[in-house]
Amino acid sequence: TWPSHCCIIVRSLLLGLVMQGVAKLAGNKSMVLPTPTFNVVNGGTGNKLAKQ
After folding, report:
1. What is the rounded CA–CA span in Å between residue 47 and residue 8?
2. Which of 1, 22, 26, 35 has the greatest number of C-beta atoms within 10 Å?
């Protein structure tokens, strides 16, 4: 419905303002999402590690 869409938009805008404030307090000029890193352990047939 139309009112719920407006609430979602307002909530998104407010969250963006909060995140900009946090970035400013941290001394960052722009908001950047952290780059995810993954650590995968690959074992051979003789390895006792559980499969992922």
Report:
1. 50
2. 22
The separation between the first and the last C-alpha atoms of the chain, rounded to the nearest angstrom, is 43
Name, in order, each residue with C-beta under 8 angstroms of 23's C-beta and a sequence gap of 6 or more: 29, 30, 31
Closest C-alpha among 41, 44, 45, 23 to residue 32:
23
Rg (CA), the chain: 21
One-letter amino acid identity for 46? G
Per-residue tokens: 27 = 């001394």
Tens digits of residue pLDDT in 17-51: 888 888 888 888 777 777 777 766 665 666 666 66
Per-residue pLDDT tens digits for 36-45: 777 666 656 6
